[in-house]
Protein backbone atom coordinates (compact mmCIF):
# COMPACT_ATOMS: atom_id res chain seq x y z
CA UNK A 1 0.00 0.00 0.00
CA UNK A 2 1.49 3.39 -0.99
CA UNK A 3 1.72 6.35 1.37
CA UNK A 4 -1.30 8.23 -0.08
CA UNK A 5 -3.56 5.19 0.14
CA UNK A 6 -2.38 4.50 3.67
CA UNK A 7 -3.13 8.11 4.71
CA UNK A 8 -6.58 7.89 3.16
CA UNK A 9 -7.25 4.66 5.07
CA UNK A 10 -6.21 6.27 8.36
CA UNK A 11 -8.48 9.25 7.67
CA UNK A 12 -11.42 6.95 6.94
CA UNK A 13 -10.83 5.01 10.15
CA UNK A 14 -10.68 8.26 12.12
CA UNK A 15 -13.96 9.52 10.63
CA UNK A 16 -15.72 6.23 11.35
CA UNK A 17 -14.38 6.26 14.91
CA UNK A 18 -15.74 9.76 15.51
CA UNK A 19 -19.16 8.79 14.12
CA UNK A 20 -19.29 5.68 16.30
CA UNK A 21 -18.16 7.69 19.32
CA UNK A 22 -20.95 10.24 18.86
CA UNK A 23 -23.48 7.46 18.33
CA UNK A 24 -22.46 5.79 21.58
CA UNK A 25 -22.53 9.08 23.47
CA UNK A 26 -25.93 10.26 22.27
CA UNK A 27 -27.50 6.85 22.77
CA UNK A 28 -26.16 6.34 26.28
CA UNK A 29 -28.65 7.63 28.86
CA UNK A 30 -26.18 7.14 31.72
CA UNK A 31 -23.51 9.25 30.01
CA UNK A 32 -26.00 11.98 29.12
CA UNK A 33 -27.51 11.94 32.60
CA UNK A 34 -24.10 12.22 34.24
CA UNK A 35 -23.20 15.14 31.97
CA UNK A 36 -26.43 17.09 32.58
CA UNK A 37 -26.41 16.41 36.34
CA UNK A 38 -22.85 17.71 36.56
CA UNK A 39 -23.93 20.93 34.85
CA UNK A 40 -26.88 21.28 37.23
CA UNK A 41 -24.63 20.81 40.26
CA UNK A 42 -22.22 23.41 38.92
CA UNK A 43 -25.12 25.85 38.64
CA UNK A 44 -26.01 25.25 42.30
CA UNK A 45 -22.40 25.83 43.31
CA UNK A 46 -22.35 29.01 41.22
CA UNK A 47 -25.19 30.72 43.08
CA UNK A 48 -23.87 29.44 46.42
CA UNK A 49 -20.53 31.04 45.56
CA UNK A 50 -22.27 34.32 44.71
CA UNK A 51 -23.90 34.35 48.17
CA UNK A 52 -20.66 33.61 50.04
CA UNK A 53 -18.91 36.06 52.33
CA UNK A 54 -15.38 35.33 53.51
CA UNK A 55 -14.11 36.65 56.86
CA UNK A 56 -10.69 35.29 57.65
CA UNK A 57 -11.03 31.50 57.91
CA UNK A 58 -14.82 31.64 58.27
CA UNK A 59 -17.10 31.33 55.25
CA UNK A 60 -20.70 32.48 55.59
CA UNK A 61 -23.32 31.72 52.93
CA UNK A 62 -26.49 33.82 52.82
CA UNK A 63 -29.37 31.48 52.00
CA UNK A 64 -32.38 31.99 49.75
CA UNK A 65 -34.77 29.05 50.06
CA UNK A 66 -36.45 29.84 46.74
CA UNK A 67 -33.23 29.23 44.80
CA UNK A 68 -33.01 25.65 46.04
CA UNK A 69 -36.70 24.78 45.64
CA UNK A 70 -36.49 24.75 41.86
CA UNK A 71 -33.64 22.27 41.33
CA UNK A 72 -34.73 19.61 38.84
CA UNK A 73 -33.54 16.47 40.63
CA UNK A 74 -34.78 14.21 37.85
CA UNK A 75 -31.36 14.86 36.33
CA UNK A 76 -29.62 13.09 39.22
CA UNK A 77 -29.25 9.39 40.02
CA UNK A 78 -30.56 7.96 43.29
CA UNK A 79 -27.79 6.47 45.41
CA UNK A 80 -28.10 2.69 45.89
CA UNK A 81 -28.57 1.25 49.37
CA UNK A 82 -25.58 -0.35 51.09
CA UNK A 83 -25.60 -4.06 50.18
CA UNK A 84 -24.13 -7.29 51.62
CA UNK A 85 -22.25 -5.55 54.44
CA UNK A 86 -20.21 -8.02 56.52
CA UNK A 87 -19.49 -5.82 59.53
CA UNK A 88 -19.62 -2.34 61.02
CA UNK A 89 -16.96 -0.20 62.72
CA UNK A 90 -17.53 3.14 64.49
CA UNK A 91 -21.32 2.77 64.50
CA UNK A 92 -23.22 2.70 67.84
CA UNK A 93 -22.47 -0.74 69.32
CA UNK A 94 -21.16 -1.70 65.85
CA UNK A 95 -24.80 -2.00 64.78
CA UNK A 96 -26.00 -1.94 61.14
CA UNK A 97 -26.20 1.34 59.27
CA UNK A 98 -28.34 1.92 56.18
CA UNK A 99 -28.25 4.75 53.69
CA UNK A 100 -32.01 5.21 54.03
CA UNK A 101 -31.57 5.90 57.76
CA UNK A 102 -29.35 8.87 56.81
CA UNK A 103 -31.99 10.55 54.65
CA UNK A 104 -32.07 14.24 55.50
CA UNK A 105 -28.27 14.35 55.88
CA UNK A 106 -25.58 15.03 53.28
CA UNK A 107 -23.60 11.79 52.92
CA UNK A 108 -20.09 11.26 51.56
CA UNK A 109 -19.59 7.60 50.63
CA UNK A 110 -15.86 6.84 50.38
CA UNK A 111 -14.83 3.56 48.74
CA UNK A 112 -11.41 2.55 50.05
CA UNK A 113 -9.26 -0.32 51.26
CA UNK A 114 -6.69 -0.07 54.00
CA UNK A 115 -3.55 -1.27 52.19
CA UNK A 116 -4.08 1.12 49.24
CA UNK A 117 -1.57 4.00 49.34
CA UNK A 118 -3.85 6.16 47.16
CA UNK A 119 -6.64 5.71 49.72
CA UNK A 120 -4.32 6.39 52.64
CA UNK A 121 -3.23 9.69 51.08
CA UNK A 122 -6.85 10.93 50.86
CA UNK A 123 -7.61 10.28 54.54
CA UNK A 124 -6.26 13.54 56.02
CA UNK A 125 -8.74 15.43 53.84
CA UNK A 126 -11.66 13.12 54.62
CA UNK A 127 -10.91 13.14 58.36
CA UNK A 128 -10.69 16.94 58.22
CA UNK A 129 -14.05 17.25 56.43
CA UNK A 130 -15.65 15.06 59.08
CA UNK A 131 -14.33 17.32 61.83
CA UNK A 132 -15.39 20.52 60.05
CA UNK A 133 -18.82 19.55 58.73
CA UNK A 134 -20.31 16.76 60.88
CA UNK A 135 -22.17 19.27 63.04
CA UNK A 136 -23.47 21.00 59.89
CA UNK A 137 -25.24 17.89 58.60
CA UNK A 138 -22.49 15.87 56.87
CA UNK A 139 -22.16 12.12 57.45
CA UNK A 140 -19.13 10.28 56.09
CA UNK A 141 -19.34 6.53 55.52
CA UNK A 142 -16.23 4.60 54.56
CA UNK A 143 -17.12 1.56 52.46
CA UNK A 144 -14.17 -0.80 52.86
CA UNK A 145 -14.07 -2.90 49.68
CA UNK A 146 -11.00 -5.20 49.87
CA UNK A 147 -8.44 -5.84 47.17
CA UNK A 148 -6.73 -8.73 48.96
CA UNK A 149 -8.17 -11.63 50.92
CA UNK A 150 -6.61 -10.49 54.22
CA UNK A 151 -8.48 -7.18 53.95
CA UNK A 152 -11.73 -9.04 54.55
CA UNK A 153 -10.69 -9.77 58.12
CA UNK A 154 -12.68 -7.63 60.56
CA UNK A 155 -9.86 -7.35 63.11
CA UNK A 156 -7.39 -6.28 60.39
CA UNK A 157 -9.74 -3.54 59.21
CA UNK A 158 -10.55 -2.38 62.75
CA UNK A 159 -6.84 -2.10 63.60
CA UNK A 160 -6.24 -0.09 60.42
CA UNK A 161 -9.17 2.24 61.18
CA UNK A 162 -7.69 2.96 64.61
CA UNK A 163 -4.14 3.35 63.26
CA UNK A 164 -5.30 5.79 60.56
CA UNK A 165 -7.34 7.91 62.98
CA UNK A 166 -10.71 7.27 61.32
CA UNK A 167 -13.66 8.06 63.60
CA UNK A 168 -16.54 8.05 61.09
CA UNK A 169 -18.50 4.83 60.34
CA UNK A 170 -16.77 2.16 58.26
CA UNK A 171 -18.73 -0.65 56.58
CA UNK A 172 -17.05 -3.91 55.53
CA UNK A 173 -18.01 -4.54 51.92
CA UNK A 174 -16.11 -7.84 51.83
CA UNK A 175 -18.24 -9.44 49.09
CA UNK A 176 -18.19 -6.21 47.01
CA UNK A 177 -21.99 -6.05 47.16
CA UNK A 178 -22.05 -2.27 47.63
CA UNK A 179 -19.13 -1.82 45.21
CA UNK A 180 -21.19 -3.61 42.55
CA UNK A 181 -24.40 -1.75 43.42
CA UNK A 182 -22.63 1.53 42.69
CA UNK A 183 -20.90 0.14 39.59
CA UNK A 184 -17.55 1.15 41.09
CA UNK A 185 -14.17 0.10 39.69
CA UNK A 186 -11.72 2.32 41.57
CA UNK A 187 -9.87 2.86 44.86
CA UNK A 188 -10.48 5.46 46.15
CA UNK A 189 -13.80 6.86 44.90
CA UNK A 190 -16.12 9.35 46.58
CA UNK A 191 -19.85 9.77 45.99
CA UNK A 192 -21.49 12.84 47.53
CA UNK A 193 -25.22 12.34 48.20
CA UNK A 194 -27.70 15.10 48.99
CA UNK A 195 -30.36 15.13 51.72
CA UNK A 196 -32.90 13.55 49.33
CA UNK A 197 -30.61 10.63 48.44
CA UNK A 198 -29.37 11.81 45.01
CA UNK A 199 -25.74 11.52 43.89
CA UNK A 200 -24.61 15.09 43.27
CA UNK A 201 -20.82 14.74 43.00
CA UNK A 202 -18.56 11.83 42.02
CA UNK A 203 -14.76 11.87 42.22
CA UNK A 204 -12.32 9.11 41.27
CA UNK A 205 -8.83 8.84 42.74
CA UNK A 206 -6.70 11.33 44.61
CA UNK A 207 -6.78 15.10 44.19
CA UNK A 208 -9.71 17.38 43.43
CA UNK A 209 -10.06 18.13 47.14
CA UNK A 210 -11.04 21.78 46.70
CA UNK A 211 -13.82 20.86 44.27
CA UNK A 212 -15.16 18.10 46.54
CA UNK A 213 -15.14 20.41 49.54
CA UNK A 214 -16.95 23.08 47.53
CA UNK A 215 -19.59 20.48 46.61
CA UNK A 216 -19.95 19.50 50.29
CA UNK A 217 -20.49 23.13 51.27
CA UNK A 218 -23.07 23.68 48.51
CA UNK A 219 -25.14 20.66 49.54
CA UNK A 220 -24.98 21.61 53.21
CA UNK A 221 -26.10 25.12 52.23
CA UNK A 222 -28.96 23.65 50.17
CA UNK A 223 -30.01 21.45 53.09
CA UNK A 224 -29.91 24.34 55.55
CA UNK A 225 -31.90 26.63 53.23
CA UNK A 226 -34.64 24.06 52.70
CA UNK A 227 -34.84 23.67 56.48
CA UNK A 228 -35.50 27.41 56.74
CA UNK A 229 -32.08 28.71 57.75
CA UNK A 230 -31.07 32.18 56.56
CA UNK A 231 -27.33 31.53 56.56
CA UNK A 232 -24.74 28.87 57.30
CA UNK A 233 -21.08 29.28 58.26
CA UNK A 234 -18.06 27.01 57.85
CA UNK A 235 -14.42 27.01 58.88
CA UNK A 236 -12.29 27.10 55.77
CA UNK A 237 -8.93 26.29 57.31
CA UNK A 238 -7.03 24.15 54.79
CA UNK A 239 -6.13 20.55 55.54
CA UNK A 240 -2.60 20.37 56.92
CA UNK A 241 -0.35 17.81 55.25
CA UNK A 242 2.92 17.27 57.11
CA UNK A 243 5.96 17.56 54.80
CA UNK A 244 7.84 14.29 54.53
CA UNK A 245 4.78 12.23 55.50
CA UNK A 246 3.18 9.47 53.43
CA UNK A 247 0.44 11.94 52.49
CA UNK A 248 2.91 14.49 51.12
CA UNK A 249 3.02 13.78 47.40
CA UNK A 250 3.20 15.73 44.13
CA UNK A 251 0.55 14.16 41.90
CA UNK A 252 2.01 15.89 38.84
CA UNK A 253 5.17 13.79 39.03
CA UNK A 254 5.45 10.56 37.10
CA UNK A 255 6.28 7.58 39.30
CA UNK A 256 6.76 3.86 38.88
CA UNK A 257 3.32 2.20 38.66
CA UNK A 258 2.17 -0.26 41.32
CA UNK A 259 3.94 -3.62 41.00
CA UNK A 260 1.98 -6.76 41.93
CA UNK A 261 3.89 -9.89 42.93
CA UNK A 262 1.02 -12.37 42.78
CA UNK A 263 0.85 -14.13 39.42
CA UNK A 264 -2.88 -13.49 39.08
CA UNK A 265 -2.50 -9.70 39.41
CA UNK A 266 0.98 -9.13 37.95
CA UNK A 267 1.16 -6.49 35.22
CA UNK A 268 4.92 -6.71 34.67
CA UNK A 269 7.35 -9.64 34.46
CA UNK A 270 9.96 -10.46 37.06
CA UNK A 271 13.55 -9.57 36.28
CA UNK A 272 14.59 -13.19 36.85
CA UNK A 273 14.52 -15.45 33.77
CA UNK A 274 12.50 -18.05 35.71
CA UNK A 275 9.55 -15.64 35.76
CA UNK A 276 6.25 -16.48 37.43
CA UNK A 277 5.35 -20.15 37.85
CA UNK A 278 1.81 -20.37 39.29
CA UNK A 279 1.53 -22.28 42.57
CA UNK A 280 5.12 -23.55 42.36
CA UNK A 281 8.17 -22.98 44.55
CA UNK A 282 10.90 -21.41 42.43
CA UNK A 283 14.58 -20.99 43.29
CA UNK A 284 15.49 -17.48 42.11
CA UNK A 285 19.02 -16.08 41.88
CA UNK A 286 20.53 -12.69 41.03
CA UNK A 287 23.91 -13.05 39.26
CA UNK A 288 26.57 -10.51 40.25
CA UNK A 289 26.70 -9.11 36.70
CA UNK A 290 22.94 -8.48 36.48
CA UNK A 291 21.99 -5.31 34.58
CA UNK A 292 19.03 -4.13 36.63
CA UNK A 293 16.16 -2.59 34.70
CA UNK A 294 14.00 0.10 36.34
CA UNK A 295 10.48 -0.78 37.51
CA UNK A 296 11.26 -4.51 37.50
CA UNK A 297 11.51 -6.67 40.64
CA UNK A 298 14.41 -9.12 41.03
CA UNK A 299 14.24 -11.99 43.54
CA UNK A 300 16.74 -14.22 45.29
CA UNK A 301 15.87 -17.26 47.37
CA UNK A 302 13.14 -19.87 47.23
CA UNK A 303 9.71 -18.29 46.73
CA UNK A 304 6.28 -19.83 46.33
CA UNK A 305 4.24 -18.17 43.58
CA UNK A 306 0.74 -17.56 44.98
CA UNK A 307 -2.13 -15.93 43.14
CA UNK A 308 -1.90 -12.64 45.06
CA UNK A 309 1.57 -12.74 46.65
CA UNK A 310 4.97 -14.41 46.68
CA UNK A 311 5.92 -16.24 49.89
CA UNK A 312 9.49 -16.91 51.00
CA UNK A 313 10.19 -20.63 51.51
CA UNK A 314 13.89 -20.40 52.35
CA UNK A 315 15.24 -18.90 55.58
CA UNK A 316 16.54 -15.82 53.76
CA UNK A 317 15.78 -14.02 50.55
CA UNK A 318 16.49 -10.79 48.72
CA UNK A 319 14.40 -8.34 46.69
CA UNK A 320 15.99 -5.66 44.48
CA UNK A 321 14.25 -2.80 42.67
CA UNK A 322 15.16 0.43 40.89
CA UNK A 323 12.20 2.82 40.84
CA UNK A 324 11.14 6.39 40.09
CA UNK A 325 9.45 7.93 43.14
CA UNK A 326 9.99 9.94 46.31
CA UNK A 327 8.83 7.05 48.49
CA UNK A 328 8.32 3.31 48.17
CA UNK A 329 6.01 1.04 50.15
CA UNK A 330 5.30 -2.66 50.24
CA UNK A 331 2.12 -4.46 51.16
CA UNK A 332 3.34 -7.45 53.15
CA UNK A 333 2.31 -10.00 55.74
CA UNK A 334 3.16 -13.44 57.05
CA UNK A 335 6.26 -13.85 59.19
CA UNK A 336 9.75 -12.51 59.62
CA UNK A 337 11.16 -9.16 58.65
CA UNK A 338 14.08 -7.65 56.86
CA UNK A 339 16.84 -5.10 56.53
CA UNK A 340 16.50 -2.36 53.93
CA UNK A 341 19.30 -0.58 52.09
CA UNK A 342 18.36 2.59 50.19
CA UNK A 343 20.49 4.65 47.87
CA UNK A 344 20.75 8.41 48.17
CA UNK A 345 19.94 9.01 44.50
CA UNK A 346 21.14 8.30 40.98
CA UNK A 347 19.74 4.80 40.73
CA UNK A 348 22.99 2.96 41.48
CA UNK A 349 22.59 0.06 43.89
CA UNK A 350 23.97 0.91 47.30
CA UNK A 351 23.98 -0.25 50.89
CA UNK A 352 23.75 3.11 52.68
CA UNK A 353 21.12 3.81 55.31
CA UNK A 354 19.89 7.08 53.77
CA UNK A 355 16.24 7.88 53.21
CA UNK A 356 14.85 5.36 55.69
CA UNK A 357 11.09 4.90 55.55
CA UNK A 358 8.78 5.51 58.50
CA UNK A 359 8.40 1.78 59.24
CA UNK A 360 12.14 1.18 59.59
CA UNK A 361 14.33 1.28 62.66
CA UNK A 362 17.51 3.35 62.62
CA UNK A 363 19.48 0.29 61.52
CA UNK A 364 17.16 -0.11 58.51
CA UNK A 365 15.33 -3.16 59.86
CA UNK A 366 11.62 -3.90 60.13
CA UNK A 367 9.42 -6.69 61.46
CA UNK A 368 6.11 -7.94 60.10
CA UNK A 369 3.44 -7.11 62.68
CA UNK A 370 0.39 -7.66 60.50
CA UNK A 371 -0.86 -7.69 56.93
CA UNK A 372 -0.59 -4.05 55.92
CA UNK A 373 1.34 -1.38 54.03
CA UNK A 374 4.93 -0.70 55.17
CA UNK A 375 6.82 2.44 54.12
CA UNK A 376 10.45 1.53 53.41
CA UNK A 377 11.92 4.60 51.71
CA UNK A 378 11.38 8.35 51.91
CA UNK A 379 13.47 10.62 49.67
CA UNK A 380 13.46 14.34 48.89
CA UNK A 381 13.05 13.99 45.13
CA UNK A 382 11.47 11.91 42.37
CA UNK A 383 14.73 10.82 40.76
CA UNK A 384 15.54 7.14 40.19
CA UNK A 385 16.35 5.31 43.41
CA UNK A 386 17.26 1.76 44.36
CA UNK A 387 16.23 -0.48 47.23
CA UNK A 388 17.57 -3.81 48.48
CA UNK A 389 15.44 -5.78 50.96
CA UNK A 390 17.30 -8.61 52.70
CA UNK A 391 14.58 -10.76 54.19
CA UNK A 392 14.96 -13.05 57.18
CA UNK A 393 12.24 -15.54 58.00
CA UNK A 394 10.45 -18.26 56.09
CA UNK A 395 6.82 -17.31 55.50
CA UNK A 396 7.38 -13.65 54.52
CA UNK A 397 4.61 -12.65 52.09
CA UNK A 398 5.05 -9.82 49.57
CA UNK A 399 1.95 -8.58 47.74
CA UNK A 400 2.82 -5.31 46.04
CA UNK A 401 5.17 -2.35 45.73
CA UNK A 402 3.46 1.05 45.70
CA UNK A 403 4.99 4.48 45.19
CA UNK A 404 4.55 8.14 46.03
Total number of helical segments? 7
CATH topology name of the largest domain: Glutaredoxin
Based on helices, strands and strand pairing, what is the structural class? alpha+beta
Q: Report the radius of gyration as a whole number of Å.
A: 25 Å
State the shape: elongated
Number of strands: 21
What is the CATH first-level class name of the largest domain? Alpha Beta
Question: How many domains is the backbone divided into?
Answer: 2
- Percent of residues in beta strands: 25-35%
* Nearest-integer average pLDDT: 89
**Would you list the SSEs in sequence order as H and E?**
HHEEHEEEHEHEHEEHEEEEEEEEEEEE
Explain this structure.
By secondary structure, the protein is α+β, with helices and mostly antiparallel strands. 25% of the residues lie in helices and 28% in strands. The strands form 3 sheets. Strands 11, 12, 13, 14, 15, 16, 17, 18, 19, 20 and 21 form an 11-stranded antiparallel β-sheet that branches. A hairpin with a 2-residue loop joins strand 1 and strand 2. The two termini are 47 Å apart.
How do you describe this structure in short?
This protein has 404 residues and is of the alpha+beta class. Helices cover 25% and strands 28% of the residues. The protein folds into two domains: 27-235, 3-Layer(aba) Sandwich (Glutaredoxin); 259-403, Jelly Rolls (Sandwich), CATH 2.60.120.
